[in-house]
Design a protein that fits this description.
Mean pLDDT: 82
Oligomer: single chain
Largest sheet: 2 strands, parallel
Distance between the termini: 46 Å
Strand content: 25-35%
C-alpha cells in the first residue's frame, strides 16, 4: 500500500507544514492526564513543537 500524504491549510495559500493554519486556534476539550511527559510550545515562526517537560523546566 502506498502512503498518502496530505497538507491541510486554513487561510493560507502557501502552507509550509502538514497542518498550516493562519489565525487563532482553540481546543475546547482536553482529557485530563495523570502524568505529563511533554509540553507543546510555539517557536518564533509559529511552528508548534513538543519538548520533554523536564527539559522545559530546566530552561527557566
Amino acid at each position: 500500500m502506498v502512503p498518502i500524504f496530505l497538507i491541510f491549510s486554513i487561510n493560507s495559500l502557501s502552507p509550509t507544514e502538514t497542518f498550516d493554519g493562519n489565525g487563532s486556534a482553540r481546543i475546547r476539550n482536553l482529557k485530563d492526564v495523570i502524568s505529563a511527559d511533554y509540553i507543546v510550545f510555539a517557536c518564533a515562526n509559529g511552528v508548534l513543537k513538543k519538548a520533554d517537560i523536564s527539559y522545559a523546566l530546566l530552561q527557566n
